[in-house]
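User: Before I run my own analysis I want an independent prediction to cross-check against. Here's the chain; please return only the structure tokens and, at the end, one sentence I can use as a sanity check.
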Amino acid sequence: MTANEYGRASILGDAYWLYAVFHCATPRPELHRVQNRFAALIAGNKGSVIIGAARIVEAAQTNSLRP
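Assistant: Structure tokens:
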């Protein structure tokens, strides 16, 4: 997440969604949607941050969506 994305997420609150797709190069990619949970994922960080895949999946609103 870049510093600009972090700033927009903090401004937009519930209107902010993070979409993460894992296993893109496979026949079964996984989509995880996280609404306004960025604070829990990156609490205390400023500027660019790295969020691990496990934290995104944990914070996702629904189970992974598979095509």
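Sanity check: DSSP finds three helices and two strands in the chain.
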